[in-house]
Amino acid sequence: DIVVTxxxxxxxxxxxxRATINCKSSQSVLYSSNNKNxxxxxxxxxxxxxxxxxxxxxxxxxGVPDRFSGSGSGTDFTLTISSLQAExxxxxxxxxxxxxxxxxxxxxxxxxxxx
Amino acid sequence: xxxxxxxxxxxxxPSETLSLTxxxxxxxxxxxxxxxxxxxxxxGLEWIGEINHSGSTNYxxxxxxxxxxxxxxxxxxxxxxxxxxxxxxxxxYYCARGGGxxxxxxxxxxxxxxxxxxx
Lengths: 115, 119
Fold this sequence. Notes:
The complex is a heterodimer. Chain A is mainly beta. Chain A has no helices and 13 strands. In chain A, strands 2, 6, 7, 8, 11, 12 and 13 form a 7-stranded mixed β-sheet that branches. In chain A, strands 1-3-10-9 form a 4-stranded antiparallel β-sheet, with no helix packed on it. The model of chain A has no long low-confidence stretch (mean pLDDT 97). By secondary structure, chain B is mainly β. Helix content of chain B is 0%, strand content 50%. Chain B has strands spanning 3-8, 11-12, 18-25, 33-39, 46-52, 57-59, 67-72, 77-82, 91-97, 108-109, 113-117. In chain B, strands 2, 4, 5, 6, 9, 10 and 11 form a 7-stranded mixed β-sheet that branches. A 4-stranded antiparallel β-sheet of chain B has the order 1-3-8-7, with no helix packed on it. In chain B, a hairpin with a 6-residue loop joins strand 4 (33-39) and strand 5 (46-52). The mean pLDDT of chain B is 96. Chains A and B meet through strand 7 and strand 12 of A and strand 5 of B.
């Protein structure tokens, strides 16, 4: 299985400041035939299912504020929140969907709080 | 707007079989893979398996021997059975819509069902 590891495990950022969460996969999730990275980011608030924020490593899901952005390729990826809002307090997960046959795996999560 | 509504027994004894169903509204089962994902209390997410409208399945090898999924096109529903449960299977179970083929991320989720395994 592809192991996905996030850092840090928790993060405290002041309102209006930038938040950065990292995700590293144990093998490349870049599919050479289409040049797509099979990596997604989710936001989960207490008592709710995860919400898809970013797919193909950098494509924002419809309706997701543009302060959320994804970057990276191959094995190293980053989720950036450019200006933290109070409603962004949540746990964030990355997920790889590259494996064939499918064994989709998630990072362990990063808890984002307000400083 | 696609919506997933799930239900099933929330309290099981060890060795029993977990059974959950997810109904899809606002869209068809056709054209997508439909997954089950679980989250133990206070922990991260684990993908269990997926099925498409024709019954083609993929399972997490760690659970494959105990997992069965099925689909009912006429009711636009899909289901999960997990046999021989133990306390380690206590989790919130989610149904989710994946992609059409070639890898899935999950854009639509059910509300989650807490399943507790306790004697």
